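Write out this protein's structure.
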Amino acid sequence: MADWIGIGRRARRCYGFDEIALVPGTVTINPNEVDTSFTLGKHTFKVPILAASMDGVVDVKFAIAMGKLGGIAVLNLDGIQTRYEHPEEILTQITQASPEEATKLVQSLYDNKKFPVQAKLIAKRIEEIKKAKVTAVVSCIPQNAAEFSKIAIAAGVDVFIVQSTVATVRHIATEYKVLDVEKFCRQTKIPVVLGNAVTYDMTLELMEAGASAILVGVGPGAACTSRGVLGIGVPQITATVDCAAARDYNLKRKGKYIPIITDGGMRIGGEICKAFAAGSDAVMVGSAFAKAEEAPGHGFHWGMATSHANLPRGTRIKVGTSGTLKEILMGPAKVDDGSQNLVGALRTSMGSLGTRNIQDMHDVEIILAPSIQTEGKVFQIGQRVGMGK
């Protein structure tokens, strides 16, 4: 299970998306007849894909468009949308900044003293989403959860996410009031999603605290630099497998199924399919949706911790604009690299693997396959097309 890395110290091998492959079984199914639905609390979604709560990805219009397509887009309550009455002007400043200026500009625009989050804007944004008759899902950091959740619930929000780089039930601090996670989950009358976690033990503790779902992943996102800045993280396949094991143990012990959501590190359809095979019930994606014409970042994407005043753990990246949200989520795909028609890719993979629903995907055979990205792909790699991009 673990190898020696020095005197008296062992480390276990962990795996990411590029290192594994999925093995077809003995049955295949028409992709149009598989069930991709995902349930969170009392809400069921036909698309098990969430658009990440990043300001370059989700605004009110994007959330409405995603909801009408059957998925979920999470609005960031700590960001631009709730600090500024006219966020489009601020987003334009960020997208037009040079790479050298971008992080410093983001830090200044998210300054809590100069530009605090406004309660009226939290309510306004949620009411705008609900007016379109789609599910409203929002997120914030633990320090703001108690205050923001009351405003959000009064405005009609459906699901509340409490998200931090590393989520724990037992947080120690003397400089500020610590969120009582168990009390918060118990008193909040809507589903509460907690994250992020990457271990069996932490997932189990968060579930025992009352979480309705768990976000899995530390540092895999395209715009996140936590792994480089802090040196922490677990590759997403291993993290998902470990957290799924905690979910299954909790189900056996408590009789309650609490879904896990693999968050980050997935660029294309094949990686999303691998996340489900590793045990995920849904996935959260950022950069793939930042490429949508509807995305407020206009082809730019930045991490949630980019704005940290003292130690940024994210950066602004240019992902470009490749198509509409519908093309990225549902197709038809106009590119050859798997970054569009994500739902179609999932359905076709499920059909090829002989799995009728997402839970069946959890039993698919996984193999270690370090050559899966390169075997037979010399021309794609050389010409930088398809899998060679």
